[in-house]
Amino acid sequence: MDKSPHTRAPIGASNWLGGIGRSAARSRATLVAIVVFAFLFLVTDWISPGPITYFDVSFLASGGTTLALAAIGQTLVILSGGFDLSAGAVISLVNAVLAANMSMTDMDASVVEWTAIGIAVGMLVGAFNGIFIAFLRLQPIVVTLSTMFIVQGGTLLILEQPGGFVAPTLGAVYMGDAVPNLLPAPILLLGIVLLLWAWLKRTRYGLALYASGSDPASAAAIGISVPWVRFATYVIAGGLYGLAGVFISAQTGSGDPLVGNSLLLSIFAAVVIGGTRLGGGKGGPVGSVFGAFTLMIVVNILLALNVSAYFSTVAEGGVLLLAVLFASLSRDSVLAEQIRQGLAALRARSVGLLVTQRPKVDRRLAFAARRGVETGTATPVPSFLKRNVETIRYAAPAYVALVLVLIATQFVLGNVLTNFSYWNALLVLSTFLAILALGQGAVILTGGLDLSLPWTIALSGILLAGMVRGSDPALVYALPLVFAVAAGIGLMNGIGVVMLGLSPIVVTLAMNGILQGAALLYSNGTPSGFASPALRWFMTGYLGGVTPVVVFLAAFVIGATVLLGRTSFGRRVYAIGNSLEAARLSGVRTGRVVIAVYVLSALCAALVGILLTGFSGQASLGMGDDYLLPSIAVVVVGGALITGGRGHYLGMFGGALLLTALQTLLAGTTLPYAFRAILFGCVVLAAVIALRERRTS
């Protein structure tokens, strides 16, 4: 029996409601970001001494727009399946370009002209990234990290220290009111950018962007030029970073070569909070804008509650981790699988079915040690060169380049090759990178990357100096405590990667921010204390004409070579880097090995922090900032494959010697310090390009 027309929804209405439902489902993450923002906005209103006014809204808008613009650019890159660590550096570069090229005579400078210049600068950097990533198919993380250091060096060449001048016309346009007492100009700017995105999303490029990020192979199969889509994405993202640099220039009215460096963690946090999936294909800039303002409100709430501003990076790092974890939760997530496996192991243990509970009986089959043993004609053992031909092939270039640098140093600086003091100093300065090469190298060999090294180094040095305060006996308890803290840091990194299934880049980047806040809180912004005499002697004294740390370095190199090349742990590290699934099916407890690798990396970073404190006599904030890219550079230059599975510690040690010799050569010239960052970035890119096709068969 047919239902009455009064009880049936029209077909058009049903389709309309179904369309709304599907759109809501697709935009669920964005809607959640909007709801969280609205809730925190109400909390701000509740804890404020008075009602929120138009001035408060305008202040929030101007404070969050730089981050929101940069987050939109980062969102496009992540939608394409990439990462961009150069975003903050591009913002600093544009700010420096504007501040260094404007003068007091440009009081009425053209806003359109200077905005176009800032966007163009950002697009040029984006094109640089896009060429290496899209067409040369290099790892986005390595390329953009190298670009970050190159751009930072270039920024310091343009503007060495804070200063310069930005025409007030930029501030009047970008920081004023689009509609007096109704619409702040920053909100209008973001609205225009989002409207452009709404149009771009419906073009062929927009559809190709989501397709390329979701499944590059399928996208290529249906005729999408994935390399050109990725190249265009990095160019557009660079332009948005450039616009963010223009806005922050208008906001500050001057230049600062470091103004954008602290935004990197916040940019990723805003993107993740906004619902964009790391790995590509899902999300959008609208959520990222609300994610950016959510972070701003969180910081404002902390300040309103009289919480130290040092907690801001801790909050950002924690929010980033929680947002990524929340977005990844599902029945098929790594965390859900870990819980299921744990429960299964408990049930198996209760009935005695675990492998470790079986009787210890040797069930191995007996094999002849070598073919021909029965006949007395054993196969001859291959020569040393044949056994190690692959290792020599990839490690030798670092040592060849080292010889060339040493020869150049002899010509530039004079008599150094026959000067024992030069060699002693070279080995002392190489110690820091040689130690980091073991930890970062082990992580890279498994296919990961540790971005938490800078503040692990700094926090370790600050903790040691604060506890020791010049006392040798205090080292007895200070050293174990510092290493225990470092082990805990590495353990948390490893658990985040293994147990929670989060990206190593995200986990270690968030951890770096958390450690920065912890160091600031512990030192109250000003580290105190100094190294003990014994530690100072170990790093700067002499024992038989040799600095004691050189003897330690020799022992460390031998131990690291044996650890990665001659132990079961080292073999498992290489197995995981070549194929995680194959290693797991071969019986390797992959989770334990990966966690151990991150613990090893943190311990090496802590050791470097301790030795740096002894070398300089005290610890300082940011003392580890100069070691992130070099720690990766020595591994890559030493012949390791950045995607894991190939490399040898002796090659990494050669890379440490090479980069230290380059530093020494640069220090003896009149070139500015900024060239060091540019050099390291170029060296990494050159090494990755040279070795990208040389995969072991």
UniProtKB/TrEMBL annotation:
Pfam families per UniProt: BPD_transp_2
Keywords on record: Cell membrane, Membrane, Transmembrane, Transmembrane helix
Membrane-topology annotation of the record: Multi-pass membrane protein
GO cellular component terms, A-Z: plasma membrane
GO molecular function annotation: transmembrane transporter activity
InterPro entries documented for this protein: ABC_transp_permease
Subcellular location: Cell membrane
TM stretches of this protein: 29-47, 59-78, 85-104, 116-136, 141-159, 179-200, 231-252, 258-279, 286-303, 309-330, 394-414, 420-439, 451-468, 474-492, 499-522, 542-564, 593-615, 627-644, 649-667, 673-691
PANTHER family the record matches: ABC TRANSPORTER PERMEASE PROTEIN YPHD-RELATED-RELATED
Protein name: ABC transporter permease
